[in-house]
Design brief:
Layout: E1 4-5, H1 24-31, E2 40-46, H2 50-59, E3 67-71, E4 77-78, E5 84-85, E6 92-99, H3 112-128, E7 133-135, E8 139-144, E9 147-159, E10 163-171, H4 197-217, H5 227-234, E11 240-246, E12 250-259, E13 265-268, E14 274-277, E15 281-287
Parallel strand pairs: 2-3
Antiparallel strand pairs: 1-2, 3-6, 4-5, 6-10, 7-8, 8-9, 9-10, 11-12, 11-15, 12-13, 13-14
């Protein structure tokens, strides 16, 4: 599907006055600067997947690090394991960024989704006044009433030999009757003091630039950059008994006790064994 620029102004652009379009000019003015990470910011009205678009463009060799692609609506958005992500137009933030961490060994690139989670949580705390917890490895949780609910997710994909595209989806103004599943949430339902998507996106991308700069300067060392400690402090999975559903229809139940230097979740099982989990679905069972 060919993306259309948001400035194309379709007739229904202002059909929901509670959900105004993003201001591309203001976003570029606030984010693109000499010596900064963000080189270009594009906003399209509608596309299949911002991640797929950036990966394809990176493969063509016409994108520098720091490209940002934002969509007002995605028709084929994907989460982990190719799960679909759906939301009404302009009800959230749906964007992808291209990073090329040349100074960092590829073995440490697995920290990028966790780094993005820290950056998003930090940015939303400042810009929206919402505490966002991190569910390992890539979910963003908010509290609605007394329930912990997923309000967003992160997806990382390789883009050629030297690049990574990070996609972020966040429910901002999604109403209760629009939730795709009852356990979903949004910033508005969590009591955000600000749901204006322009300052929210600027806050998140500035936070991401800051954390990425620290991590890259430390050559990807999660301890030296402060990333490992900060992620652990904001991770709602740690200290819980969880079930890790692994490839090959295998599962492990144990207490999540740490995130190790490789970004893996370490489970302490009843057998007295500590097992690191590098990939899989995590189900929160109860507090330890």
């Amino acid at each position: 599907m060919t993306p259309r620029d948001a400035s194309d102004s379709p007739n229904n652009r202002w059909s929901d006055l509670d959900r105004p379009p993003l201001n591309t000019t203001a976003l570029r003015r606030g984010l693109v600067r000499e010596g900064g990470l963000w080189r270009q910011v594009d906003v399209v009205q509608r596309t299949g997947s911002t991640n797929s678009d950036l990966v394809a463009r990176a493969a063509e060799g016409d994108l520098d690090e720091g490209a940002v692609l934002v969509a007002e609506e995605q028709t084929a958005a994907r989460g982990r394991l190719d799960r679909q992500w759906t939301a009404p137009a302009r009800s959230g933030l749906f964007f992808s960024v291209l990073l090329r961490p040349a100074e960092v060994p590829v073995t440490r690139w697995g920290w990028l989704p966790l780094l993005t989670g820290v950056a998003v949580a930090t940015g939303l705390s400042r810009a929206a006044g919402v505490d966002t917890a991190l569910k390992w490895p890539n979910d963003l949780l908010v509290t609605v009433g007394d329930e912990e609910r997923k309000a967003g997710g992160i997806l990382a994909e390789r883009a050629g030999d030297d690049g990574v595209v990070i996609g972020v989806g966040i429910n901002v103004t999604l109403r209760a009757d629009e939730l795709p599943v009852p356990r979903a949430g949004s910033l508005a339902l969590a009591g955000a003091v600000n749901t204006d998507r322009d300052p929210l996106l600027r806050g998140i991308l500035r936070s991401l630039e800051d954390w990425y700069g620290r991590w890259r300067a430390a050559e990807g060392d999660p301890a030296a950059s402060g990333l490992q400690e900060t992620y652990a402090a904001g991770c709602a999975t740690l200290g819980r008994v969880v079930r890790a559903e692994l490839p090959g229809e295998r599962s492990i139940v144990g207490e999540a006790v740490a995130v190790d230097g490789d970004g893996r979740l370490v489970l302490a099982t009843e057998a007295g064994v500590q097992e690191p989990v590098g990939a899989g679905d995590i189900v929160h069972l109860r507090l330890a």
